[in-house]
Amino acid sequence: MRKIGIPEVEDIARGAALLGAGGGGDPYIGRLVAIGAIKECGPVTLLDPEEVPDDAFIVPFAMMGAPTVLCEKMVGGDEYKALFEIVANHTGKKVFATMPMEAGGLNSLFPVAAAARLGLPLIDCDSMGRAFPELQMATFTIGGISASPIALADEKGNTVIFDTITNKWSEELARAVTMSCGGSVAVTLYNVTGKQIKDYGVKGIVTRSQQLGAAMRNVKNVTDKTPEESFLEFSEGIKLFKGKIVDVLRETRGAFNFGKVVVEGIGECKGHSAFVEFQNENLSATVDGEIVATTPDLITLVDTETFNPVPTDALKYGKRVMIVGLKCFDMWRTPKGLELVGPRYFGIDTDYEPIETRSKGGWK
Amino acid sequence: MYKLGIDVGGTNTDAVIIDEEYNVIADIKNPTSDDIYSGIVGALKNVLDVSGIDKTKIGQAMLGTTQCTNAIVERKNLAKIGILRLGAPATRAVPPMVDWEEDIKEICVRKEIVRGGYEYDGREIAPLDEEACKEFFADMKAKGVNSIAISGAFSTVRNDQELRAAELCREVMGDDVHISISSEIGSMGLVERENATILNAALWQIAEKFTEGFAQSLADEGINNAKIYLSQNDGTLMTVEHARKYPILTVACGPTNSIRGASYLSKIENAIVIDVGGTTTDIGVIQNSFPRESSVAVTIGGVRTNFRMPDVVSIGLGGGSIVREKEDGTVTVGPDSVGYALTKKALVFGGDTMTATDIAVRLGMADIGDRSLVENIPQELAKKAIEAIRTMVEDAIDAMKLSSDDSDVILVGGGSVILPGKLEGASQTVKPDHFGCANAIGSAISKVSGTLEKLINYDDIPRDEAIKQAKEEAVKMAVEAGAVAETVEIIEVEDVPLQYYPGNTNRVKVKAAGELKA
User: Fold this and answer.
1) For residue A308, what is the nearest residue in chain B, using CA coordinates?
2) CA–CA separation, B188 vs B168, rounded Å?
């Protein structure tokens, strides 16, 4: 058990941007909301999953919708209370704690705000180990855990709670509600027990974000290696390409940001070209016509000097970036995992191959 | 024909005259004045004198000024403002100015989030609460506020409500009220766009002063054949009318100008550029001859915005920075400065305020004013002050460095005498000729741009073709505005899908810039 205060939030925000794999939104807004909540209500208690009783009732929290929408509409402020009340009423159970659904992007920090505002502990665990665009893409789905009852609240005061026959249906219906409500809603789902998070959760992910964030903050203080080497070492990342953004194509379809970013090689990659396709998160990286990484492994674009991750909604012509690949959580590499989040699910016509072998160790 | 470049800093007004081949004909420094005007007049007289050129042969006059940046950093001369956001019940968890520092929050007399704003597809989150707007404006009028910042959720997609609120504002507060509208100032991201709008609103008095001062001084000096321009933050020029409406766009033009000027003068393509003025020190990076651009968000005086700007750390340190000894014996330098009053207030000029310049003279690093007037500054205090300066600059260099390897450093700006000789993190330190006027030179070599913005339905014209056409049109506009065709480059491309329009309609924005024909 430990406390999450404002300095911890700053590091988590930095690390969560990396685990966002381009999506999940710039954690800045999440950071403002979390800091605002901590300033008002005090630090949040973070529990290790092992400290949670097996029969504890845990209600994960997230914001659902396009990051660009969240950067404009943000949060109203009354959503947390409304949601947790209807969940408690609907299930008749007392809520023990909340936790993040996804550790990447701004969804790493909204649960901190929810925990602070509601006076609940937060558990050091999520169900993705990164960010993914759809809500059935959770390790809990692999464990056969239902996302229902799923509860949604918008900033206007609308709330809804419903049950579905599959988690994919939860996504479909929740997405429809999100669209009607203007592209973003607050959501609770996958109400789980302490036993279930121990079996299927991605444990220690809040701490990992915080450690990544602290390491990124210190990347220039390492003296025995270049910042690039140091960055790749602590993130356990694989360098896939380095270049200048020459085009960004985007389209908002449904509540998603779709697109493709084209990168022209610089430095050791000069004369080569690459592109990354995304749906909120980066899905695949292709160098000189050959796919070098696909989901569920993490593909992140980072600034070549500061190593700050560049989320898909902040991609801009002329920016210099390194394309980095990170290994995903092991459970995603199982047949059940790949069915949920493998390349074919996203319409990419290739079989999954782990990034370590697919990229042949990265750009040399 | 000649180009005249003027840079009005907090302390000095610099002027340069360059010829068509960009050779420096003359460069001078003159103290900035409280009214801006007489400082510019002095600089003009001086530079015309030194150059000996025929003043009717000056075809272009460019003004770059850090007046706006200084005002924000020092929290000085900012107008009192009211902030109205159209967005409730959304957006309330992040109120305006939420992460601003306390001392600058004071410019805001009242902030209000009223019902309104749009969804991403152009639907209303809530209808605009016109009664609440009117009440707000009436209250602002009663409190003597005459500058209002208006922002709204998704106003980049649809700005009808912002325009309506502005209309109401004029009805209630009269035609003289200054209104800044977020959809005309920033891009996507409500917090950053709103921040820039708030700063813009707070800067109107300053903008009025420096634009009037510049135009008047040129007229008075008989420079009648020159087109007048102002430098903006991306290294391009804008007209006087535009600058009055959008003074925030001049913010950080100083760093852009000094980085471009420093690189031009030193012929070094990769280095850290340190520009020490009288009030602030800006530390930026020149990379393959272009200022390194900051990634997503830029902070100005601690306020986050989303402009495209050079990546610059700005610290409150300059030749005029006030030096204080605290009761516990520690010594602080800045962030406030005596500014243009340096030649009156600094000890070496017989004044009563201890400044960074006095410390430099005391320690024999500079020979300015009367040495004997600083002899009674204790050696120990002076050393503590110089160590404080060193820590400030070295920390900033470290923050800008690309790696733990040392980097070349180009020193420019009139205040650079206050820096200790050897700096941690610098492999070599270069001070080019005309180093004191790098800003004015950067201003004189500013580019002229053309911006094309229009709605295109990608179902009618495929995106690739549409962007290609837009780029060609932007280049044409830049050339029409006076750019040399071969030097024109595309500096910005943006397309935003507008879902409330039929078909696949996008707002396409392309900006092209090139060197201004002499």
Assistant:
1) B295
2) 25
